[in-house]
Fold:
Amino acid sequence: MPATIEALLAARIDHLDEPARQVLQCAAVIGREVPATILESVTGLKPAELAETLRRLRRSELLRELPLTEPGLHAFCHPLIQEVCYRSLLRDRRRAIHAKVARAIKLDFADLREERISLLAYHLEEAGELMEAAQANIRAAFWIGAHDSSQGLRSWTKSYQLLSTQPVSESTGFLRMQACLQIMGFGWREGMPTEEAQRWFEEARQLALAAGNMRGNAWAHAAFGRILAVNGSADDYVLRMREALAIDVKDGSVEPMLMASLSQALRLAGHLDEALKVSIEAASRAHEISEWDRQLMGFDVEQWLTVMQGQILVLLGRFDEARPYLDRMLQADVGPNDVTLHLANVAYVDLARGKNDKGLAEHHAERAMRMAVDSDSPYERVSALACRGISHMTSGRFEAAADQLEKALSFARMKRAGLEGEARILADLADAYRLKGDFDSAGRTAAEAIAVASARAARIPECLARIVLAEVLLQAGAAERAGLELPKVRALMEETGALLYQPLVQDLAEKIELGLRQSRAPDAVAKHRNGGA
Structure:
């Protein structure tokens, strides 16, 4: 049946007069929506002749006008009409029309707003003008990536593929290196496997070294290090950032950007005091950062440093100091789906948990979730689900907390996104199980959290997981075994400075002391009955 319909449509198109067939074919190349100005430029018909031809095509129910959008805008009455018409064009004719459409887009949309660049890139590629298509794709990728990380990754990958068709030169080598760096940059949010990231890293580094581009070499280490934080160890991330900073770049723009990433790496590894110090220094030098380096990061570095300082201060238990940084970010003039705004809401949920503020936790957890849904970012969805779990725990809804944290863990593992937070999610999930009275699950999950945290060098989540494990052991009457966890917890607290958990540690120490006294009491009574023997 479909073949018969296509044959009928092809016959209808063949029976059109030459001007009508020409207009319909050009419309098929232009796309789903056909602006009259573009159609006029591509067909070369005079306005009156084009208007009459469009009327005939509307009467034939091949095209329809879209008067509610913009004057002269048309669309095909059915997608199959466009498909049949497009396929009827010989390859050279089709490419020639794509080239005309690309030229028309550049002339008709002189400002060439970013949302039209992707359309231009498509027509340039179909016209066989691959280098210009790659350049248009790069411009589009910068804009798209600021709004949609998954589409940004696809756009940069497309740019790289187009560049790979071009002869080797200094300019194409630079653009390929830039594409490799951006692919890694978006890859950490989208769950890129380490093996794939390794390939992009090696190519970016080789291209940079071949060109004597030490800035590119430093950025390759930084981008790869961030992915290692997801799939490997935070200590690996720190090491890569220190290696990047040791490269003699001779450019004042690069160092503060690399320091910002080092601060993130140190925070993930649990070196909070150094992370804060590095972040403050990077912020003081943010004005030195070039526009190219800002674009490479993919978001505003000053805003990132602002929210990162708030995050670190929350973990240090310095809530009153953290609030101005987070509030400044929440009041900043950024897009509704800006990732730094999302991170500020996430940090506020931790702050609310530390202060036991139920309303504050719920407010920011729901804001984080709305942003994650709007952006459709797997990375944001993972942290938003975890935030909901923490919010539910703050409100005493432990069953709901466990449910949300289970979903966060499952989604992170399925999408391979946000896995730098896997140990933290596991530790919170263990706590949720404990609070709802499922001590077997709490113990198993806490042990898993400790194993993951140890492998990832995630010292702060390990501290929380050991607190939960000790609580579970106390519940089982194993006060002495719980007591063995306390020195490990205190050592992690000392190493990280994560005073966010200080109240939990104090409460745990008191419970262990009480448990030990109670366990010794029967021995003391028995000794008294036996006359002190």
Q: What stands out?
A: The chain has 27 helices and three strands.
